[in-house]
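Q: Please design a sequence for this.
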């Protein structure tokens, strides 16, 4: 039987992530998404007791494009997901994949010491995690 190397989320997550304020427009969000590698933005907390949110390209497709809404007239807070599941950077990628599957999510922020340090997706888990 082959020994499987333990791969942690920290090793496969994206660290070049975009961030945006919830009051920004979807048009502004799309401009930021173009500049980052991923297909999501982290929505910043408004205050210390708030939670992070996420804006996915798929949210924009379903809630703006498909409904024929103007991106200049829709704010991020109207369509973002909040609160969101967060992942510890030390988590084994196999458990992360199981968590994603159980809750039918495809990506999540990686939180360390209360701050977002990256984003991990199914693609990262498979393409980077299984190839190491």
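A: Design:
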């Amino acid at each position: 039987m082959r020994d499987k190397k333990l791969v942690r989320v920290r090793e496969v997550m994206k660290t070049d992530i975009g961030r945006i304020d919830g009051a920004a427009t979807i048009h502004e969000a799309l401009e930021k998404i173009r500049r980052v590698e991923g297909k999501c933005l982290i929505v910043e907390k408004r205050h210390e007791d708030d939670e992070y949110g996420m804006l996915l390209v798929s949210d924009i497709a379903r809630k703006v494009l498909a409904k024929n809404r103007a991106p200049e007239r829709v704010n991020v807070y109207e369509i973002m997901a909040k609160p969101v599941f967060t992942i510890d950077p030390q988590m084994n990628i196999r458990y992360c994949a199981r968590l994603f599957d159980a809750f039918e999510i495809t990506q999540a922020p990686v939180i360390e010491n209360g701050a977002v340090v990256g984003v991990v997706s199914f693609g990262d888990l498979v393409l980077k995690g299984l190839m190491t």
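Q: Thanks. Anything notable?
A: Helices lie at 9-12, 26-35, 57-65, 76-79, 93-103, 122-129. The domain at 9-129 is CATH 3.10.580.10 (CBS-domain).
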